[in-house]
Amino acid sequence: MPSKRKTIAVVAGAAAAVGAAAYFIRRRRLLSEAEDDDAFTAPILSGAHEKSKVEVGMTKSPVCNDLSVENQLLAEALREIGAESPRTGPATSTASAVGTSSKGTMGDRKEFPQLGLSLTVPSPWKVREDLSPFPNVAMLTVWNEELVTEEVAQQPGSVPMIVLSVEDVRADNVNLDEFKDRCKELAVSQMMMMSGGAIEPKVSKNTSTKVGPFRHMLEYSQSLPPFCDIVVLNLIEVRGSVAYTFQIMGSPDVMQRYRSMFMDIANNVRIESNISTALGYVELLTGSVKVDIDTTWVYEYPGGDGALAVMTTTSPTKKEEIGLYHQGGVPVTPHKLRSEKVMDGVEVQIALDGKQEKKTFTYNGYSLVVKPLQKSNSYLDEQMLVSIVKSVSPSTAEPKPKKGGTFVNKEHGYRVNVVGGSRLVASRIGGGSVAYAPQGLDGAEGGDHPPTVTMRVGTPENDPECMGSVEEWEARMRQEAEEGGIRDIARTTVNGEPCLTFISQSMEEIMPGQRMEIRGKVFIFVREGRTTLIRWEMAVGLWKKFERDMNAFVESLEFI
């Protein structure tokens, strides 16, 4: 039977990830507490009416012992929400009190413009944006500190746990039906973990609904007396490339007591449509042209059939191919023209071969040809494709090493080279933190931990724990090093920029009976009071193999 501690961790993980999962989730235990002070904790959006300000927490947070993300692509796992043990009070947040924490009565609307939503909560309940474990996910938590005590912390489900997760699903390109099916699959899987896979949770509701903006309801429960008796209710909505999941969790008695309040809050949620979620873009230089593409796409250049470049989406169910050609070099296919239109000066043609659709976007002598690979129709946003074809221009600049490109993040003032076959996770939804997997999602070699990178930005104005200079960072890290886990602290320069570097190392259990030592190197730059932090980590056994790649990545960093 699972321990209470393990049960709490799994339930907390489910609250964070059901409806907000990214890529693959697997079980893992950390055998020693990670040094979270060597990297920013997940970025936090600022409060009401501050549409672009990003705040980055630097506080140390507990390590999750039960859930993580495959290949560490998303870097922080559930340690960011303190899933190892229940909170005995409200978590500290560095976000502005305006719009993120309030004791106001129902009607005091809290705005989260970058998430495209607003909501109200009754007094004395509060709402805050929590630390997110995923760069493409934001989490709002609703809580009542008067209900959280040491006693109830030992009784899972004795107080309601309310989480509203907001996920950028641009890469998956899922609609409501597809997303709610994914939620159900993940919910059942995670709840089964509580019983070691022996007892399947009961799904009591999985139906269409109309509660405020939410159009689907998923309710399920898991009973493991005397350890826990948990009911989880999800309200789900998908708008454009953003998925919203409003979740309440508690014991059956607690759910009955608070269901009406939960429904009142849900009914008062307002969701905007068509908010922008993209953070930056990847600039490709093929040797003949330059083009700016979406960060979620994989690419190769040149392509076959005369293509200047071929991009492919990463959706597991709606994969599409996007080919870039000279206008006169588009391959002839059996498709018959069905319609034409002009969008922002771009000629758009839609053609069919039977039921199979093809879209062609032509501008300034170049054509972008879109072909669905798994469905009959294209589901890519046409305005995005218009912007991409308009970004194409002649260029004889040399391609980047390893058939790569350059990730350009103007919002946070930097650009850095990425290699072909790699994966990026960058979204405004998650507050601006960026995750990078140089070896892609399948980069593990014989179970090893392949290189993963986290990039974050912060300022002392947004976070009092963020240092204002390299010297201040050095003093802080030398103090942290006295507690162990950090070594080789050194000041250096990278491309003429002052930089602080250090190494952290910890032992992790990646599966039952299999341990692995993970090493991370952190690079900290401070320009005009703003910190840019890069953390590169991998299995110790792979360090020598990929150390040169790490140095090349950091040396390609350019501030803009």
UniProtKB/TrEMBL annotation:
Q: Which UniProt keywords apply?
A: Proteasome
Q: What is this protein called?
A: Proteasome maturation protein 10
Species, as recorded: Trypanosoma brucei equiperdum
Which GO cellular component term is one of those annotated?
proteasome complex
Biased composition of type Low complexity is found at 88-105
Q: Region entry Disordered: which residue ranges? A: 83-110
Superkingdom of origin organism: Eukaryota
